Amino acid sequence: MNRKNIILCGFMGCGKSTVGTLLAKKAGMSFVDLDTYIEKKENKTVSEIFAENGEAYFRQAERRAAEELSQKKGLVIAAGGGTLVYKENEEALRKTGKVVLLDIPVERVAERLKNDTTRPLLNRPDKEKAMKELYESRMPIYRAAADYTVDADNSPMKVCMDILDAVM
Ligand code: S3P
Fold it and tell me: Which of 28, 30, 84, 162 is spaced 20 to 30 A from 56 at the CA atom?
């Protein structure tokens, strides 16, 4: 397989993993969820890594994962919400792939993640405020990193087809 990777980026809850799984099937590519990749390497969940080792440790593991995955081809990679925020990760992943932003309004993210407890950055009493602030600070970075942007406030299949139209 000599095809470029497709890297899905966007805010937590935008559907990177769900859409990525569908997209890989449709495109005949392999799917890798970057968070799951880290979890397997560390033998811990992302929440456990944050709680036991801290965010800085997680970011190092994320950096190594981005570097390793950028050595491969033919992958659909669901990045973590923070992955592309770090320039070195963006540069590594871009070398062998195209970046697609799954664009979604923060209100929809708030609905989707209302009862979620698996995102350590949002596991706090002022969840909605923290989410909005993080969203505002990150969207411009995602937009700058993206080769393509799709409207992710749609069904996973529609988003998947829109990505295929954009990148193929
Ligand atoms: C993070 C997003 C998460 C995960 C970690 C940190 C972030 O991934 O990597 O909790 O910094 O936005 P998802 O976007 O898949 O939830």
Answer: 30
Cα 90 to Cα 83: distance, rounded to the nearest angstrom: 7
DSSP 25: H
CB-ligand 1 contact for 123 (6 Å cutoff): no
The rounded Å distance from CA 166 to ligand 1 centre is: 25
Each residue's pLDDT tens digit in the chain (168 positions)? 458 999 999 999 999 999 999 999 999 999 999 999 999 999 999 999 999 999 999 999 999 999 999 999 999 999 999 999 999 999 999 999 999 999 999 999 999 999 999 999 999 999 999 999 999 999 999 999 999 999 999 999 999 999 999 998
* Contact 46 CB / ligand 1 (< 6 Å): yes
Report yes or no on whether pTM surpasses 0.90: yes
The SS3 of residue 8 is strand
Atom of ligand 1 nearest to the CA of 12: 14
Q: What is the CATH number of domain 5-163?
A: 3.40.50.300
CB of residue 12 inside a 6 A radius of ligand 1:
yes
